[in-house]
Amino acid sequence: MRHNGKQYLLTLAIYPVLISILLATLWFSFVQWEPICGNSNFSSAETEETLEALSSFGGFGNLAKQLKDQPRELLFASLIAVISFLVSVILITFALLCLYRHGLEQFIRYWMTVSTAVVLCLIGGTLLIRLCQFLCIPLDWLSVCFMSWNFSVGGVVAIFYYAPRWMYHGYLIVMASLLSWLFRDFPRLVVGLLLAGLATWDIYAVLSPRGPLRDMVEIAHERGGQGTEFPSLVYDTCPFDMHFIRQIEQREHFDSSRRNSPSSSEQPEETCLIEEGSYPCAPGSNATREENTVENESGTVANNRYIKIGLGDFVFYCLLVAKSSESNMLTWFFCLCSVIVGFFWTLVLLLGYRKALPALPISIFLGLLAYWISMLVTYPFSKHFISTTLFL
């Protein structure tokens, strides 16, 4: 609880982003590897079409293969898919805002739960089959379905209910890398346009006075209290179970007040339910006050002192860097460094301004700039010097 310096907070936020990017790069590279035994256990054409339809954006993988020799048609189809995705993101965001405004948090939670289960089951099962193909491990469809089902149910329980903190963080990191894999069949130019559009939308949604994400934050502040937070997929960098810590603090406060005030039993008391029994609530020890506590001179860190990052930011960081790995390793390294540097400065601004900020723009625009500089200048330059064996 005393590791509350800004360096520690930045470390807690940067490490999961870096791990998810490396996982996404592994997934993008993994599907291109040949089986170690020279053949595949799931090599039928019907199976390959099913896998592509289930694990790509709107079944775009099969369309991309059909238009492989027609680059113009493929580019046009990709642009249509990207525009439809951006429009759907905008419409879904406003739909969620309307549901939240009318107090339908439970419906949103059920929606998120079903979506998470589908993503973990379908994409996780597809990667499991790809792994069996690569390792030449015979596996029947019943076993694949059983393992995928257990993986998805475990993820839903860990993310939306209760699980050890490391499992909760691990499932979010894996889910972000899996979601980025949905866009693997889009051309790199179209991916760049998609990311630029999402970064622009992120600026409007968070910083605009009438932006939907800003409205959600304001509604949550107006309501206050426990149980009114917007149910969303958010990576909370807090390494502790704050609910359990509050229970311990309430019990300690009650025990100490009971020892110091013998006549306190005559006063009416409000009770709080704790796991092992019912104890009086400490004055002002509700969730709202705990969430709004700031760091004091004794080094106490409340829950809002830790950084919370939307899972969508993880997904598009992963997509940008993993997609660049299809070009060359130099470009991949440039994009990785640019995204991490942009994310670092976003966190610095966040800690300085103490308000919600869009996490995509700085990292995405720096990453896109690094990608095009590397592809157009750095990589051809280095390739030329390597081919001419000229060293400085």
TrEMBL record:
Protein name in UniProt: Presenilin
Organism the protein comes from: Galdieria yellowstonensis
Keywords: Endoplasmic reticulum, Golgi apparatus, Membrane, Notch signaling pathway, Transmembrane, Transmembrane helix
Transmembrane segments: 12-33, 74-100, 107-129, 141-161, 166-183, 189-207, 330-353, 359-381
GO molecular function: aspartic endopeptidase activity, intramembrane cleaving
Subcellular location: Endoplasmic reticulum membrane; Golgi apparatus membrane
Region (Disordered) location: 276-296
SMART domains (UniProt xref): PSN (SM00730)
This protein's record includes keyword Endoplasmic reticulum: yes
GO biological-process terms attached to the record: membrane protein ectodomain proteolysis; Notch signaling pathway; protein processing
Entries under PANTHER family matching the protein: PRESENILIN, PRESENILIN HOMOLOG
Manganese as UniProt keyword: no
A single GO cellular-component term on record: endoplasmic reticulum membrane
Predominant subcellular localization, coarse grouping: endoplasmic reticulum
Similarity section: Belongs to the peptidase A22A family.
Topology in membrane: Multi-pass membrane protein
Record InterPro entries: Peptidase_A22A, Preselin/SPP, Presenilin_C
